[in-house]
Amino acid sequence: MRTVKWNGGLLDRIPGWKKVFVVSESRFQLHVITDGKRQSQELYDIVEAAVRGGADVIQLRYKSAPALDLYRLAEAIRPAIRGAGAGLLINDRVDVALATGAEGVHLAAKSLPIAATRPLMQGDQWIGCSVHSVEEAVKAEQVGASYITYGHIFATNSKPGLPPRGVDALRRVVDAVNIPVLAIGGITMENIDEVLATGVAGIAVIGAVMADLEPERAARELRQRMDASHHRPKKALPLAKALSDQHGRSEIVQ
Ligand SMILES: Cc1ncc(COP(=O)(O)OP(=O)(O)O)c(N)n1
Ligand SMILES: Cc1ncsc1CCOP(=O)(O)O
Ligand SMILES: [Mg+2]
């Protein structure tokens, strides 16, 4: 299904019509990962700006943070994310994802395996994981990943000295699986178009939004470029809003 730009008009009067657009499955996902450097107020401000600009998902990633710190940060940013109809993912910590009613978890290389995580999650909660080859991608699909991330596509400060994998390798991963594939690593306004042309479900970024002095504008530019692209995902991710509307996963359990 292709997303159609909504301009209002007569159809506005038909109840439920707009929802058809909200749950459109052809939108590219803008997935913003936190940079692990911010305390709660600063993080809240950036996250609020990012979702206002059009980020679909915020992934809370604080490597080696104690569960309580991660829980409190999630609790602090959740209202901004919910308010914008976006989704929250927790990096690595399945327990924190469950306790916060997040839309899911992104499993890192040293996290619990997907097969051990799946029975713990509600059926529609996302379990994402990073892959580094076609073989790993196929394996992740077989064991039940909701989506996978492949990278790093371009050179990035996050992976100094490591050669980027490039868009041709990304395309081979997209072609090999039937689950959504996000691209990550060094993605900016300068190179996003060639990434979208591969059939990815979207992009995951840290620096392009978190390191920008105007995160709302940065997210909006990426969002607009994705919406305007004539390419579409081979397999898209649903909007987080559709999941939380359905299951009321709106409140953090205290
Ligand atoms: C969406 C997304 N893609 C990739 C990653 C990878 O980051 P990391 O947490 O370091 O996981 P591993 O590289 O150790 O597998 C991510 N967090 N989010
Ligand atoms: C966590 C991670 N995994 C592969 S690349 C990367 C960093 C992405 O950051 P940026 O978008 O700033 O290149
Ligand atoms: Mg990593």
Automatic annotation (TrEMBL):
Cross-referenced InterPro entries: Aldolase_TIM (IPR013785), ThiamineP_synth_sf (IPR036206), ThiamineP_synth_TenI (IPR022998), TMP_synthase (IPR034291)
Role according to the record: Condenses 4-methyl-5-(beta-hydroxyethyl)thiazole monophosphate (THZ-P) and 2-methyl-4-amino-5-hydroxymethyl pyrimidine pyrophosphate (HMP-PP) to form thiamine monophosphate (TMP).
Entry keyword Metal-binding: yes
Pathway(s) served: Cofactor biosynthesis; thiamine diphosphate biosynthesis; thiamine phosphate from 4-amino-2-methyl-5-diphosphomethylpyrimidine and 4-methyl-5-(2-phosphoethyl)-thiazole: step 1/1
Coiled coil feature spans: none
Biased composition (Basic and acidic residues): 244-254
Name of the protein in question: Thiamine-phosphate synthase
Keywords: Magnesium, Metal-binding, Thiamine biosynthesis, Transferase
Cofactor: Mg(2+)
Species this chain originates from: Tumebacillus permanentifrigoris
Cofactor details (free text): Binds 1 Mg(2+) ion per subunit.
Family to which the UniProt record says this protein belongs: Belongs to the thiamine-phosphate synthase family.
GO CC list: cytoplasm
Record-level GO BP terms: thiamine biosynthetic process; thiamine diphosphate biosynthetic process
Record flagged with keyword Zinc: no
Signal peptide positions on this chain: none
Lineage: Bacteria, Bacillati, Bacillota, Bacilli, Bacillales
